[in-house]
């Protein structure tokens, strides 16, 4: 996990600058009305990051569709819809059925995967390779960040004006310093944590979902992800118990007020609060999706160190396997 998370910025840079215009043309997609993402686990968190970026840039609705709609049910109409499947392995039965079902219902399917010639790829109209190389640790790191990069490259094919910003962000992220100045403090907070809220807004919420998942699967810590706009509607009450709060700040101007409010409220209630920003490691002027990827790149090493300090093996958690086969 240490080696693979260290490779993540370079994987992101390659994925985010790939030219997918020909792949998009192969789908034959025209008169696009909506984009639906289909994924599970860390891939679904990456899809959440991408959804905010795509909606802002394209003006199209984009949201997550449960794979069970196709794997257990009869599916939904997909005319005028692009289905974006994200799966590092491309092997889960429910995603294979979803790709097949989406096409049968009139949708166009693009898959983001890291495994060449996977079962999902065989059912897709086009595949965007993450090209991260083998990922041996059970917790996905470089493939998650690479999935965000691949999605940004797809967005650049849909919206050519976005391409320059994606490229600039890739160059910045490729040179990011992963040693966050607050790493030691964050690890100390996590080592005494009992309950953790990971809070973000916009693309930062997708990053929060991924960080909460990693804290559960690597560190066996109870962690929940919330949008900064939702966490004050009830979940704030849990601050009456010992609560740790990690705020993921993508530094987009429109999210500052809600993050500031959440930070103030949790600090007043004496929670352990830490706020992380890409600029903490000198990463400036990133697109919101790239900023979310940068936050993940900074936090993965801390999750790893915390897991080891707690006596866990983050490369092979007891209850997890690299490929999760669900229906």
UniProtKB/TrEMBL annotation:
Keywords: Aminotransferase, Repeat, Transferase. GO terms for biological process: carbohydrate derivative metabolic process. Gene3D superfamilies: Glucose-6-phosphate isomerase like protein, domain 1 (3.40.50.10490). GO terms for molecular function: carbohydrate derivative binding; transaminase activity. Pfam families: SIS. Residues 20-168, 186-317 form the SIS domain. This is Probable aminotransferase. It comes from Oceanicola granulosus (strain ATCC BAA-861 / DSM 15982 / KCTC 12143 / HTCC2516).
């Amino acid at each position: 996990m240490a080696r693979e998370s260290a490779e993540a910025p370079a994987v992101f840079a390659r994925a985010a600058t790939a030219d997918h215009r020909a792949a998009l043309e192969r789908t034959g997609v025209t008169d696009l009305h909506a984009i639906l993402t289909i994924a599970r686990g860390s891939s679904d968190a990456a899809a959440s990051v991408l959804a905010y970026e795509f909606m802002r840039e394209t003006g199209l609705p984009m949201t997550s569709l449960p794979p069970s709609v196709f794997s257990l049910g009869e599916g939904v109409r997909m005319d005028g819809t692009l289905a974006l499947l994200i799966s590092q392995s491309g092997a889960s039965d429910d995603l294979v059925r979803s790709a097949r079902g989406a096409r049968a219902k009139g949708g166009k399917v693009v898959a983001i995967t890291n495994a060449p010639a996977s079962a999902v790829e065989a059912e897709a109209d086009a595949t965007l390779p993450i090209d991260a190389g083998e990922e041996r640790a059970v917790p996905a790191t470089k493939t998650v960040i690479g999935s965000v990069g691949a999605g940004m490259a797809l967005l650049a094919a849909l919206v050519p004006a976005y391409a320059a910003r994606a490229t600039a962000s890739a160059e910045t992220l490729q040179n990011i310093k992963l040693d966050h100045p607050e790493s030691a403090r964050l690890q100390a907070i996590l080592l005494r944590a009992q309950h953790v809220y990971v809070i973000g807004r916009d693309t930062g919420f997708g990053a929060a979902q991924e960080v909460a998942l990693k804290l559960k699967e690597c560190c066996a810590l109870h962690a929940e992800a919330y949008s900064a706009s939702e966490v004050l509607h009830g979940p704030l009450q849990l601050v009456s118990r010992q609560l740790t709060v990690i705020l993921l700040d993508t530094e987009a101007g429109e999210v500052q007020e809600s993050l500031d409010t959440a930070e103030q409220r949790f600090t007043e209630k004496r929670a352990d609060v830490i706020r992380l920003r890409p600029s903490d490691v000198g990463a400036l002027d990133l697109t919101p999706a790239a900023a979310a990827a940068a936050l993940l790149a900074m936090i993965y090493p801390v999750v790893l160190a915390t897991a080891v300090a707690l006596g866990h093996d983050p490369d092979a958690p007891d209850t997890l396997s690299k490929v999760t086969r669900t229906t």
